[in-house]
Amino acid sequence: MDISVIIPLYNEEESLVELYDWIERVMQTNGYSYEVIFVNDGSTDRSWNVIETLKQRSDAVHGIKFRRNYGKSAALFCGFNKAQGDVVITMDADLQDSPDEIPALYRMISEEKYDLVSGWKKKRYDPLSKTLPTKLFNATARRVSGIKNLHDFNCGLKAYNKEVVKNIEVYGEMHRYIPYLAKSAGFTKIGEQVVHHQERKYGKTKFGVDRFVNGYLDLLTLWFFSRFGVRPMHFFGLLGTLMFIFGFIAVVVVGVSKLYAMYNGLPYRLVTDSPYFYLALTAMLMGTQFFLAGFLGELVSRNSQGRNDYQIEKII
Questions:
Q1: Cα-only R_g, the chain
Q2: Residue stretches of the chain with pLDDT short of 50
Q3: N or C: which end of the chain has fewer CB within 10 A?
Q4: pLDDT on residue 207
Q5: What is the DSSP string of the chain?
Q6: Which pLDDT does position 2 carry in this prediction?
Q7: Where do the structural domains in the chain lie, given as residue ranges?
């Protein structure tokens, strides 16, 4: 099979028939063998009924229905598991992603041998309150991930080599950082394609301002796990050691200063009267706690079942 199209959706009943007809037209025009996987993320409208109707029309339609709303990452994870196409394409169900982009994305994966191609909605039909935070968010993601050529990490329109989706785990709200997950798994040929962004035709957006706050927290989590996930002592142990040494030196300085003043007949005060003594003591305690956190993290990591799961591309 050439292409699997995965469409996560939540309350998008008005757009599904039009979207599928559009995808079907593109596939037939280009002669692709394909499947369309709708993942109904706990919709409360008639979205699932529409999917069942589409299934009766075509065997290319597949549907996954969640009992409740789990989020886009969960929908993509289940869609990736079911996908059979050599190239996997994801798009949103709100008709803001154009199926006419599929042939170009398919060629970049199948002919130019990209591992992942992310869409870039260079011209957006969104208010400034959404576009400005998005630009700041993407700038931060580029710097932290090291993927300098991507302008829109969160674009729903992406294309993947099948090997990519079978070797990454999308969880929580990490769908924003699939390129980073792919890079961490060893898939480094990541490209970008300018795509057309259409105005929303039905319904309203499902995302609020909180996604930007959560996005930064998820990015920090992903950065930490990619760098120190299997060696937490390298982070906590180093930080704890530095804090303890700083605190110990500060205590020594406070004590030596008092002894110097005593032996030279200078006025002095009790060590416990100095605020620096308590700051130094706090630093030593925190340093010890960080070191123990790293040690406990190492114990957990060493006993993890996935500690030796490595991405092996070929064996000869």
A1: 26
A2: none
A3: C
A4: 57
A5: --EEEEEEESS-TTTHHHHHHHHHHHHHHHT--EEEEEEE-S-SSSHHHHHHHHHHH-TTEEEEE-SS---HHHHHHHHHHH--SSEEEE--SSS-B-GGGHHHHHHHHHTS--SEEEEE-SS--S-HHHHHHHHHHHHHHHHHH--TT-S-TT-S-EEEEHHHHTS----TTGGGGHHHHHHHTT---EEEEE--BPPP-SS-----THHHHHHHHHHHHHHHHHHHTT-TIIIIIHHHHHHHHHHHHHHHHHHHHHHHHHHTT-----GGG-HHHHHHHHHHHHHHHHHHHHHHHHHHHHT-TTTT--------
A6: 95
A7: 3-228, 233-302
Dig out the tokens for 97 from the structure: 């992603």
What pTM, to 2 d.p., does this model score? 0.75
How confident is the model at residue 171, as a pLDDT? 82
Biggest CA–CA distance in the chain, Å, is 98
**CATH architecture of residue range(s) 3-228:** Alpha-Beta Complex (3.90)
- pLDDT tens figures, 75-126: 999 999 999 999 999 999 999 899 999 999 999 999 999 999 999 987 766 6
